Amino acid sequence: MDTEVARARALDAAEELFYGRGIQSVGMDDIRGTSGVSLKRLYQLFPAKEQLVEAYLQRRDERWRQRLAEYVDRHTDPVERLLAVFEWLRESCAEPGFRGCAWINSYGELGATSPRVLAQVRAHKQAFKAYLAGLVGDAGLPAPLGDQLFLLAEGAMVTAGMEASPAPADQARRAAELLLAAHRWRETDRETADPGRAAGCGDAGVRRR
Amino acid sequence: MDTEVARARALDAAEELFYGRGIQSVGMDDIRGTSGVSLKRLYQLFPAKEQLVEAYLQRRDERWRQRLAEYVDRHTDPVERLLAVFEWLRESCAEPGFRGCAWINSYGELGATSPRVLAQVRAHKQAFKAYLAGLVGDAGLPAPLGDQLFLLAEGAMVTAGMEASPAPADQARRAAELLLAAHRWRETDRETADPGRAAGCGDAGVRRR
DNA sequence: CGACCGAGAGAACCGGCGTTCTCTACGGTA
DNA sequence: TACCGTAGAGAACGCCGGTTCTCTCGGTCG
């Protein structure tokens, strides 16, 4: 068996088992059983379990972001591209075996004890946040919206996993639409009716009833 | 040592260690060392580690929701009570040793293998969501806002843990204000200018540019 | 054809951990 | 004082899992 094939099978098994059961609940022998790659080969490819975990998270990150980008690229309108993120999320959450965000789960389990895992988690979240920020910028919307949409997406993935339902992704999408509209209204308000308040980007415009 | 005291010390140690390091990374001997409660006593109080975990999550849930309610009860205005949730979240996230949401972390680690843990996690999230729904109802705001604020809060806790910063709680608070305003405007629009669209609660009012 | 290299299967090693057991000491009681 | 139940300290037990080693076998090259 080719080295590349063995590596791919090992990572396939790692993804299936680590994501489905949690990392510490899966032994290297389980990886061997599922992948068909012998222990000897496994340890040639990955000198320790931690590095298999790292490689699993990294490959999943690449694929995850690529699939997201492909889905988003089916749209050209900048606002539709933003909302497409939540549609894609909804599809992801509805897949069988969905169990929340792989990186958040890994963080809860190993974030405190494995610096390599922690680095992978942070890198993934940072990349996702940067991607959202790019979409927000392309739509000519203010940067804080990117962070807010990021929080909605995180909450949706976590909650969809725990409730075993894609409904949170729909709720997040509706919230995203409202936030979009709110930011746009605020921008136009600022330009036309009330330019003096442009500096304070806080809650001044919201509190009044 | 009194039984109640031993139980409390065991749970104190469990909370400190399980939350700080993850559950599977902490052995019963660590609990003993930190709590000063002998192994024999520990197993009299909790027949197995899983039940200590369960009790830890349950007691933390009670305290967590009580502290939240106390913070919220310092306000009387219904809208301020809603926003107080995010202020309290911000304070929680800023505490030293904050490492995200204990229940989300536990879900990632044991949700797939321990039904008792899974039940605790779901119960806690359901209770928090119900509490938010109550606040939203008290403010006379539409129910979907409760779910949306819930997602923001979840995202904020998770992200604050990973980034080791309370900033996400601030971002969530601003998003909450915008969502509140959006829902209110939509309500007034519906009553005054455009009652015919009241039935469709979807995105019709947002898409138009 | 024979020596060698690499790979796979599985045992072996070693430490860790959940759980139980033993031993000792102590405090209360007749 | 003698007895007894209890609690704590720590060892012991069994199992599991990460990692390494051994043995065997098939293919390759001189």
From TrEMBL, chains A, B:
InterPro entries: Homeodomain-like_sf, HTH_TetR, Tet_transcr_reg_TetR-rel_C_sf. Gene3D superfamilies: Tetracycline Repressor, domain 2. The keyword Membrane does not apply. Residues 27-46 bind DNA. Residues 187-209 are annotated as: Disordered. The keyword Transcription applies. Residues 4-64 form the HTH tetR-type domain. Keywords: DNA-binding, Transcription, Transcription regulation. PANTHER family: HTH-TYPE TRANSCRIPTIONAL REGULATOR YJDC, TRANSCRIPTIONAL REGULATORY PROTEIN. This is TetR/AcrR family transcriptional regulator. It comes from Streptomyces glomeratus.
